[in-house]
Design a protein that fits this description.
By secondary structure, the protein is α+β, with helices and mostly antiparallel strands. The protein is built from nine helices and five strands, in the order ααααααβαβββαβα. It has two domains: 92 residues, no CATH class; 102 residues, no CATH class. It starts with a helix and ends with a helix. One of its GO terms (biological process) is DNA transposition.
C-alpha cells in the first residue's frame, strides 16, 4: 500500500471513528447535548471536522467556507454559536481520535522504519496561551513589569519516518521536560512498541531519566 493509499485509508478510519454514535456519547459533556432537546444547529460531527480543518482565516470566514463548500449547506453559523457549541465537546475527543488512527496505522500498514527501527523523537516547547485568569491558574504564567502572561509547557512524541504524532501533552509551565517525556513514553508503551529508537536533545539525559528508560 503506497503513501497516498495509506492517507486515504487513514481518512476512512477517521471518518469511521467520528461518525460512530458511541464517539458522540462518550465525548459530549452532557446527555442533552447534540439532541433535539439540546437545540443546536451544529452537529457533533460538524464541530469535530471544523476543528480538524485548522482555521487559518478569520473564524467567521472559515465557518462560512466550511458550511458552504465542505458541508454543502446554506445554514449560517455565527462565530458566537460555534464557540458555544464547541464548549459542549470534551477535548479528550481529539486525543481518542489520534489514538485510534495511530492504532490502525501501525497495525495495518507497512510503515517506514530506519534500519529496522521505528525512529522516534521527543521534544518540548513553551507555548503562549490566551491570557485569561483561568488559564494562568491552570497552567502558570511568566511575569514582567506590566503583567502576568499565561504560558504552558508542551511536549510531543513524533515518528520521524512516518510524519506521525504518537502522543503529546500540555502541562503546567513549570513542569520539566523530562517529566513530560516520561509521561509520553509510558503512553507509547500502553499503545504498543515496535522496536523503537528514541532520540532526545542534549537537555534530556540524566541518571534518573536513563534509569527510567532502562526500566521500560
Amino acid at each position: 500500500m503506497g503513501k497516498i493509499n495509506n492517507f486515504k485509508e487513514g481518512i476512512k478510519e477517521s471518518n469511521h471513528v467520528i461518525n460512530d454514535i458511541m464517539f458522540l456519547y462518550k465525548f459530549r459533556l452532557k446527555e442533552t447535548y447534540f439532541t433535539r432537546m439540546g437545540g443546536s444547529k451544529l452537529k457533533f460531527t460538524d464541530i469535530i471536522l471544523f476543528i480538524l480543518n485548522f482555521v487559518k482565516k478569520s473564524l467567521q470566514i472559515e465557518l462560512d467556507d466550511f458550511f458552504n463548500k465542505v458541508q454543502k449547506s446554506d445554514v449560517t453559523i455565527t462565530k458566537q454559536a460555534f464557540s458555544q457549541a464547541r464548549r459542549k465537546v470534551s477535548p479528550k475527543a481529539f486525543i481518542y481520535l489520534l489514538e485510534e488512527v495511530n492504532k490502525w496505522f501501525y497495525k495495518n500498514t507497512p510503515f517506514n522504519t530506519y534500519r529496522g527501527y521505528r525512529l522516534l523523537a521527543i521534544d518540548g516547547t513553551v507555548i503562549q496561551l490566551h491570557n485569561s485568569a483561568e488559564l494562568r491558574e491552570k497552567f502558570g504564567y511568566i511575569e514582567n513589569q506590566n503583567a502576568k502572561v499565561a504560558r504552558a509547557q508542551a511536549s510531543a512524541l513524533y515518528d520521524i519516518e512516518n510524519d506521525m504524532i504518537i502522543a503529546s501533552k500540555i502541562d503546567n509551565y513549570r513542569t520539566g521536560e523530562r517529566e513530560l517525556a516520561e509521561n509520553l513514553i509510558i503512553k507509547m508503551c500502553e499503545y504498543g512498541t515496535y522496536n523503537d529508537l528514541l532520540l532526545f536533545d542534549r537537555g534530556y539525559p540524566s541518571r534518573d531519566f536513563i534509569n527510567f528508560l532502562e526500566g521500560k
